[in-house]
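Write out a record, fold above all:
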Amino acid sequence: MRLCVLASGSGGNATYFESENTKILIDCGITYKQLNLRLNNNDLSIDNLDGILITHEHTDHVKGIDVLLKRNDTVCHLTEATHGSLHFKVKENVKEDKLSFITPNESFMINDCEILPLSISHDAEDAVGYIIYAEGKKVVYITDIGYLPAKDIEVLSNADMYIFESNYDITMLFTSNRPFYLKQRIDSVKGHMSNNDSAYNMTKLIGENTKQIVLAHPSRECNTKEIAIKTYEEVFKDYGLNITDYNLVVATQDVPTKVFEI
């Protein structure tokens, strides 16, 4: 399997996943032009896409979906509530025959891939993360999450690869010039996940199969790559873990990650 995080952050999100027989895009929050450019620069292609997985209706996850569906003969998988909450400029340009409604916590197949959408806590109508099973491997994709309930630890544990939110440094957030209500929203259980909480949760999730962690949806104003990595290093050390065993990478808004071989 191969995976590339094409864009990650409040300006737009998109991740490409490929197994032997399947090509999937997770979210489409960047333009069709940028999508093509970033894929082509990594010797990947949007052609013959087998499916699109949408996590929730916020613009930075869906703003390119209408154009992509017009230009690519594929199906968009999302919950009915997410579809109902799409901005009208996107919703009115997406034909219903291009949609496949999914139910959180009920798995479905796209060719050789089993997909399990998992309800997550975020200030969206029906936000989900995804677990993808293919070729004997397991990939977890969870961003835009305020907290991770204990009941989800087992199903998420011991993945081969995690793309997991690490949005903000709490000191940077509360000393920033952002309005206090926005700081509260980000730091709430329906908001985003801090570096500390992300690292703590990851210590509960990783297992002997875990070889790759990608930190996703970093804030431009309230986080840095260096701070996120340092936080992970410190938390992992507190739990007797060595972060170098997990090939930690921080995704960015403007430059795709390398293509990971899973």
In short: The chain has one domain: 2-261. Residues 225-238 form the longest helix (14 residues). Residues 42 and 114 are 25 Å apart (CA to CA).
